[in-house]
Structure formats: C-alpha cells, structure tokens
Design goal:
The complex is a heterodimer of chains A (200) and B (514). Chain A is mainly alpha-helical. Helices cover 52% and strands 0% of the residues of chain A. Chain A is built from ten helices and no strands. In chain A, α6 crosses α10 (186-198). Chain B has 514 residues and is mainly β. Chain B has nine helices and 18 strands. Chain B is globular and about 70 Å long. Chain B starts with a helix and ends with a strand. The chains are: A mainly alpha (200), B mainly beta (514). At the A-B interface, α1, α2, α4 and α5 of A face α5, α6, β4, β5 and β6 of B.
Chain lengths: 200, 514
C-alpha cells in the first residue's frame, strides 16, 4: 500500500467509524463520569458504582462535592474538580440517567462476615444503641429519596465510607450517619461492608 | 529504552547553539525553581488538566506513568472532560443530550421535553502544552571522542523541548501529538538527514462506548506513529521507564525492534476494544513512511530500514481490578519484514533498499500490579520480549554472521509514589538484554577472541520529586514540574563486563510542563 493510500484509509476510518452502535450513555457528559466510574457506571477502583443509585442522592452528593462539604481525601482529590464546572441541571440529568441503569452487585466482600453483617444491618446492635440500617436504607438496602442504595456497592468503598464517618470527614449536612457509624467497631464495619456487597 | 525515553535523548548541533540553549535552559530552570518555590500544583500535560479539571495525580503516579484513571482517559481517546474549559470548540448540548439518553433508557425517547441548552459559560482553549527537560549528565568514564559540541564529561543540556497537542478534537476524537527539539548528539549526526526538530510520539484516537447485553464496550481506532505508543500500560516500550534519560550517556546498543526502532518512521492504524473494563484487545498495522515523508517530518529515514508490506501489531491484556487493586497480565507483539538501506551513509546518493528483508518476530509478555493507598501508589511491573530474527538480507550482505539470531529483553520494576503534593517517587528497575553471539553484528571480544553477544544488564534507580500534585494553585492548570535524580549501573555492557562500569551514569534533570 502506498503511503498516500495509508493516510486515505486512516481518514476514511476516522470518517466512518462513528457510524457504530449508538447506545444510551455514549455522550460526552456521561463519559466524564464513566471515565472513572466504569463504562456502565458499575464502579471502578475507588470510584463507586453509580448505576441504580437514588437520583436524589447522586444529585445531593454532586452538590456537596461542588460546595466542598464532602471532604474525604478521594472526594477532594477527584470529585471537587469533577463537579466544579457541573451545572445543577446537568447534575440532575446525570443523576436520573445513572439511576436508570441496572446495578450489578460487587460480590467482593468477605463471605464469612456476611451473616454477621446481615444481623447488624437488620437488627442493629441494641446493646450499643446502634440502630438497624434497614430502618432508613430499606430491607434490601435499596435506599429511598436521598438515602443511598447500599446493596451491591463494593466492599472497599462501603468499608471506607463507614470508617470515614467516624474519622471526622463531612458529607451531607444533617445526616445522622456520623452519630450512627462512629459507634461501629472495625468488626462491625467489616461485616456490614461484606454483607452489603452481596445484596442484589 | 522506550520511545518516550528516546524522545528525551538528543542529537547534536553547533557549539554556539548549544550555549544558547544552555542559557535558555538555565533561565527556564531558574524560572521553574521560582515557580516551584512560590506557587503550587500542576499536571502532567497541563492541557489534559485544563480539559478534565483534574490534578495530574488523578492520571499519573509519575510522569508519564499512568494510574487506572489515566489509562481509561487514554482508552476513551483523550476526550473526557469536566474541567473549567470547553472540551472542543464546537457548541455543546450536553444537558439536553444526557436528558435524551435518560429518556431513551426509560423507553419514551420521543416524549422528551427538554429544551436545548447551549452552554456559553465555558471558554475554549486549544489543548496545547509544552515541555522541556534540562539535564546534567555525569558518566563514570569520560565519553569516547568525538564529543563535539560537548565536553567529555559533566554536561548540562536542554533536550528535549516539545510542543504537544493533548486533548479532545471533537466529542469522540482526541489526540496526543508531539513535536520535539532534540539537541545534536555527541559527535554529530551520522548522515545528512539528521534533524533537531522532529515529529514525535503521536496517537490520534477515535473512541466510543457501547453496550450489548452483558457486555460493556469501549471501542475505538488509533492512528499512531510508534508501536506501543498507543498502549495503556507502562510495561510496553514506548512509555516504559526510565521516562527521562540522558541524551549523552551511552546505552546498550541492542534492543528488540519493538523497543523504539520504528518510532516516528512508521504510520499505523488499528482498532481496539476494552470489554467489561476487563479485557483489552487491539490489532494495528504499520507501514514505513516514504523517505521524503520521513525527512519532511524531521525523522532520519536511515534510522531503520523500510518495512515490506504491512507489519501487524497485536495486544491482549486482562486487567482485573478489585477495591484499590489493579492487576494486568498481557501479551503483545509485532511481525516486521525490514528491507535494509543499501547505503545509509548516502555516499552514493542512493535511497534504495535491499531486495531481501530481515524478518523480526517480537513476542512480548507483561504484567503490572498497582495499589492505590490513601496517600501513595505502589506499582510493580515486569516485561519480557523475545525477538526471533531471520536475517535474510543482513546475512546475504555479510552484515550478520548468522542467518538467525535471538534477542531477549527483560525488565523488572518497582515504584512507589508517596504523597499528593510534594510527591516523592522512588523507582528501581533491573534490566537484562541477552541474545545470540554474532561476530559481525556485535564484534569480537578483544580478550578472548570470541564473538560478542548483545548482552547487557544492570540497574536503574531514580528518585523524583513532583512539587505540584493534587491541590490547586493560582497557576493551575498551566504548569507542572518534575525533578529527578537517576543512576544507571551496568554489570555487563554490549557483551562484555570489561569497562561496563565506565558507562554508569548519573542524570540530574528538571522537567517542566506548561
């Protein structure tokens, strides 16, 4: 093949390649999120799953990142910049979009701890005055309104978030979580994160 | 050494010009140190930072070593945005389009009531960046003559200086394209077609995403000029460690072909996909640019012979990730039929190539493990390339003594990057090149009288300081820097241990990105 033919082929490829299977989510605004959160928003490394999350929760968290209220290290490192230029109407549209994607459970917790985690989730720890999680997050950890879906999030993310509540980091103003979660010990956090990672 | 490192190597020129560049370098160094002292954070390629709104640490553990998010940014064609500037100069309807996607998912696409929203709040800045590396090189023994225009030892050189296009062009197309000034090599150019300015690493990509049932795909096309420059992992040659290297210190003469021999000499187009954020597949074909095209682009055509037909390149990588862990196990390779030039000195004014070709089959295997700590990155890398050479042309023309040879290249590396701002990166690498003895290709051992091998092995250790990491400063996102101190130690060099240590080198460098 002559060089000119090679460049012509390159040009034609670039020209016609966009005629491919267009799917929901393949637009630049969504791509700004799925870049880190995974191709279908199912989570990737430390970036949590967005698929199936409560839209009000996503929207409120975007607002809290934007306003620098949610201040855990990775929030500051990644999300403050990611939401700095994100306008409220776009945040709402993105939240609604990701909420419609069927979530896949991470299934990456410690199975041996899951039973204990389920007990804590469903019954709380009465002797420590720790309320049952399901009271707010629902029996299947599906969340409601701006209370997040926890079921199926990754073990590492859940564990990290539960630990951060007790470490003085901030998130949604007025949330009871700092009080609730700061009473959890390492074993309870491990058990809860493990259990929740398997919930569908 | 990868092409990124090759890029950082210089070629030669006039003494006065070197002095002028030295003065510029010194001024840049002073300016850089001033900025480091009184300013803050920045990014690897500042245009990427402007586009994404992310600090350099989001994508880089070190420059240009990538984090998982850096790999995905590249995978998505350098098009991801989210920063304070518009991604492309074209008007945007993003809010409406997201809403439309949402409605499509809910099954009533035709009922969307969202009104067009034209975003005029962001300005467009072309994604142009620059970088410069000023380096001081000390070798254990003085450089062999001729060294003009440099001293036999302890030289400070500004090389390279690069201008980049780094970022989105359209919604689905982005580019990393580099034009570089390389200082003249010690002793000058070997033929009349040496250039100081050259096109350099270039990777233009088209990328989209799609879902088919349980499969989530990122797919795209890459057009590039250097096999492995498009790769996502720093285990392959183009972006392998060391990322900055002295332009003056001697390095082992033998490499496998895929380790930079074709860089900037070829053009290639390929297709790739990432399936379920787990399995990466790519096939690319390369063809040598014509003599005049290479010369026009600033590449010395005599650097490597002409590829006959199209040289296929392939890449498969499996990258499971869990929690803060990322593991990659992969293979890559290339088959090339290279017709050597008849007269690389150009003494006969000939640009003819030999009718026979040397055939190279490069098989590479690589792995990487990466862990993201709260305030550090740990990365372990390994790569092994085995090159099967069938030297039909070189053997027939008496340029090689054997009709077939083997060359192997092994690299094992560990790197830890501590901190966000004021990041310190410690990297150690063991390298080993070994292969078949060939008296014509590699010479005769003066002591034993036996044919020499291409064998070289040793260690590279580097400590780097990246002053600007994660937070933002008044200069954000327009500037970044990296200060590195690198030591190269050789047990064996070009087939012999005699005098191997003479090539040990110390390279102190300051790397500025603007």
């Amino acid at each position: 093949m002559k060089q000119s033919n090679l460049w012509l082929a390159l040009f034609l490829l670039a020209l016609f390649a966009p005629i491919g299977p267009v799917r929901a989510g393949d637009n630049d605004e969504v791509r700004n999120c799925t870049w880190c959160h995974g191709t279908s928003g199912q989570g990737y490394m430390v970036a949590p799953r967005l698929a199936g999350q409560r839209p009000q929760y996503i929207e409120s968290q975007i607002r809290d990142f934007h306003d620098h209220i949610r201040d855990a290290p990775f929030s500051k490192q990644y999300m403050w910049g990611a939401t700095a230029a994100l306008q409220p109407d776009r945040a709402r549209a993105l939240a609604q979009y990701f909420a419609t994607i069927e979530p896949k459970p991470a299934n990456d917790g410690n199975r041996a701890s899951a039973a204990r985690g389920r007990t804590v989730y469903m019954e709380g720890i009465p002797e420590a005055n720790i309320v049952a999680c399901y009271a707010c997050h629902g029996p299947n950890a599906e969340g409601v309104r701006d209370i997040p879906r926890l079921g199926g999030l990754s073990y590492a993310y859940l564990r990290s978030r539960l630990e951060q509540w007790g470490q003085g980091y901030h998130s949604t103003p007025g949330s009871p979580m700092p009080v609730v979660a700061s009473q959890l010990g390492p074993e309870e956090i491990e058990a809860l994160a493990s259990y929740l990672s398997f919930v569908r | 050494m990868g092409s990124a490192a090759r890029v950082l190597r210089g070629r030669s020129g006039r003494y006065r010009r070197a002095c002028r560049w030295l003065a510029v370098g010194a001024a840049a160094l002073v300016a850089g140190l001033f900025i480091i002292a009184f300013a803050s954070p920045v990014h690897a390629l500042p245009s990427f930072a402007r586009q994404t709104g992310q600090p350099c640490g989001a994508c880089h553990t070190d420059f240009p070593a990538l984090t998982p998010y850096g790999r995905r940014f590249k995978l998505l064609g350098y098009t991801a945005g989210g920063g304070p500037f518009k991604t492309t100069p074209f008007s945007s309807n993003e809010a409406q389009s997201v809403r439309a996607e949402y409605d499509k998912l809910r099954g009533y696409a035709a009922t969307t009531t969202a009104q067009p929203v034209h975003d005029d709040s962001q300005t467009y800045v072309p994604p142009i960046s620059m970088m410069a590396i000023v380096g001081f090189t000390h070798t254990q023994a003085p450089l062999p003559p001729p060294t003009d225009p440099y001293s036999p030892n302890d030289n400070t050189v500004l090389s390279p200086f690069s201008v980049f296009w780094g970022g989105a062009i359209t919604r689905d197309i982005g580019a990393f394209a580099q034009v570089t000034y390389n200082a003249v090599p010690a002793g000058g150019f070997g033929d009349p077609f040496g250039h100081t300015w050259t096109w350099d690493n270039t990777d233009v990509r088209f990328a989209r995403t799609a879902s088919f049932g349980p499969l989530d795909l990122v797919y795209g096309i890459t057009a590039n000029n250097n096999p492995t420059v498009q790769d996502l992992w720093n285990t392959t040659p183009a972006w392998g460690f060391p990322y900055a290297a002295s332009t003056l210190a001697n390095t082992p003469a033998t490499k496998t072909m895929i380790e930079g021999a074709f860089a900037a000499h070829v053009g290639g187009v390929g297709a790739y996909t990432m399936i379920n954020d787990l399995l990466y597949l790519e096939v690319t074909g390369y063809k040598t640019l014509s003599f005049s095209q290479q010369n026009a682009l600033g590449t010395d055509p005599f650097g490597v012979g002409q590829i006959g037909g199209i040289a296929p390149y392939w890449r498969v990588a499996l990258e499971p990730h869990w929690g803060r862990h990322s593991l990659m196990v992969g293979t890559f390779g290339m088959y090339s039929e290279v017709h050597p030039w008849v007269d690389t000195s150009f003494a006969t004014w000939s640009t003819a190539v030999q009718p026979l070709a040397d055939k190279f089959t490069d098989l590479g295997f690589d792995t990487q493990y990466q862990y993201q700590g709260d305030d550090y990155w740990l990365t372990l890398r390994g790569s092994y390339i085995r090159e099967f050479q069938r030297l039909d042309a070189s053997f027939a023309s008496l340029a090689a003594a054997n009709p077939t040879n083997l060359v192997n290249s092994l690299k094992l590396q560990a790197s830890v990057a501590f901190g966000g701002d004021n990041r310190i990166v410690l990297t150690g690498q063991y390298f080993n090149i070994w292969g078949t003895a060939d008296p014509t290709l590699y010479g005769i051992d003066a002591t034993t009288g036996l044919a020499l091998t291409p064998n070289s092995d040793g260690w590279t250790a580097e400590v780097a300081y990246i002053p600007f990491g994660l937070s933002k400063s008044p200069l954000w996102p327009w500037f970044n820097a990296r200060i590195g101190l690198q030591y190269n130690y050789y047990n064996k060099f070009n087939g012999t241990t005699v005098g191997a240590h003479d090539n040990n080198s110390l390279f102190l460098h300051a790397w500025f990105a603007m």
